[in-house]
């Protein structure tokens, strides 16, 4: 699957503004990790955020999602300024995954998705404790939705497995399902293909297109440039906390400043099936895919 990269950089973007970050700055003591960054994501878009290690990409995500209170600047969603509180940001319609996987390792796959669902269930604590009819109905509806999402990411057969026993690539997909469970309008993905083999990366690419086709806009951080340039309508480049360049995949990958600061050399298109098979065979031989699971209970 490929995107149309023939649109000129200055051309109109689809949809209307969904997320708008304005002048976002984040300082840690003497270090300015993010400096006056503006970024807009429109409905129907897949936007990439790239840049070298330590450029401030994850810090920027943390500012967008209320995990950090930006030193300066504002973040708006659907025209309203977001309070910097993670649960309010989730309720407003933004969901995210983490660079370091954060699943509940000793819960099942299904239970992990149900955790992501709780911001959308209206039943209160008393109803839950009493397990009344309203609670049971809400619980059944949540389970149905969670199973739908597991089917969507291809993990329904593993619904009852413990999250810790999933292969690494499936853990990353499960994080996406958990994020989708809050019914977001915008999904933020922080390095969704890190540690994946080429086949898993390609499946994830298709998954992100499918998410966009469901009407959910996506902002994605990745170091895999094939993935980014195949997928994104627009790419923004952060270097040392500042936005260096923004434009279509085609424009960004040929920008001399981006090449000098990050890419190194022009990107030469998507891999063919043969190339993918070769890389995959080499990775299988060296066992290069890792398997880790993150801290429980953190956002
Ligand atoms: N909580 C924090 N306290 C102090 N410094 C921080 C904190 N979080 C991030 N930083 C610093 O901010 C800078 C940007 O880090 P960040 O993790 O945002 O980079 P990144 O672009 O996501 O890098 P990578 O591609 O390696 O994930 C780094 O110098 C990092 O050490
Ligand atoms: Mg990061």
Q: Would you mind describing this structure in some detail?
A:
By secondary structure, this protein is α/β, with parallel strands linked by helices. The chain has a single domain, classed as Rossmann fold (3-Layer(aba) Sandwich). Strand 9 and strand 10 form a beta hairpin. The strands form two sheets. The chain has a six-stranded mixed sheet with strand order 6-7-8-3-9-10, sandwiched between helices. A four-stranded antiparallel sheet has the order 2-1-4-5, covered by helices on one side. The chain has helices at 57-64, 86-92, 109-117, 125-130, 133-153, 168-180, 198-213, 225-231, 249-253, 256-263, 273-286; strands at 17-28, 31-42, 46-50, 72-77, 80-81, 94-96, 186-190, 217-221, 234-239, 242-247. The chain is globular. It contains eleven helices and ten strands. Adenosine-5'-triphosphate (ATP) binds next to strand 2 and helix 1.
The number of domains: 1
Helix coverage percent of residues?
25-40%
Instruction: Quickly count the helices.
Output: 11
Mean pLDDT, nearest integer? 85
Small molecules (ligands, ions, cofactors) in the structure: adenosine-5'-triphosphate, magnesium ion
Structural class: alpha/beta
Instruction: Report strand %.
Output: 15-25%
Number of strands: 10
Quaternary state of the chains: single chain
Q: Whole-Å distance between the termini? A: 32 Å
As laid out across the biggest beta sheet, the strand order is 6-7-8-3-9-10
Shape: globular
**Would you state the CATH class?**
Alpha Beta
CATH architectural group: 3-Layer(aba) Sandwich
For the record, what is the CATH homologous superfamily label?
P-loop containing nucleotide triphosphate hydrolases
| Strand/helix succession | EEEHEEHEHHHHEHEHEEHHH
